[in-house]
Amino acid sequence: MRLGFIGTGKITSAVIIGICTSKISFQKILVSPRNRYIAQKLKKRFRKVNIAKTNQEIIDKCNWIFLAVTPKVGQKILPKLNFRSNQKIISFISTINLSQLKKIVKKKVKIVRAI
């Protein structure tokens, strides 16, 4: 299981800390480069955490995608990303509902809202 996080703020930090300190089995975690400070802290603390160069790299290399950006940022960046149909998406974006996400993603993927 390869986990990717688009958005590197408090929610992403909390979820990654929870995953890395649990017994959940995964190969690696890839985080977006947006907040370098938080991304570097997570990478330094957990050996399986790496920082992607771009958000598309996360989509290309991970099969579980966590969306943890503001609604405004989500509307701007998500349509530019090329998702794959075998991916699972967990969204923490508060005001973008499932039907809106499906239109934005443009692939038949499993999407769950966690907020």
UniProtKB/TrEMBL annotation:
Q: Which UniProt keywords apply?
A: Oxidoreductase
Q: One GO BP annotation here?
A: L-proline biosynthetic process
Q: Name one Pfam family in it.
A: F420_oxidored
- Ranges where the Pyrroline-5-carboxylate reductase catalytic N-terminal domain occurs: 2-91
What terms describe the molecular function in GO for this protein?
pyrroline-5-carboxylate reductase activity
InterPro entries the record matches:
NAD(P)-bd_dom_sf, P5C_Rdtase_cat_N
Write out the similarity annotation. Answer: Belongs to the pyrroline-5-carboxylate reductase family.
The name on file for this protein is Pyrroline-5-carboxylate reductase catalytic N-terminal domain-containing protein
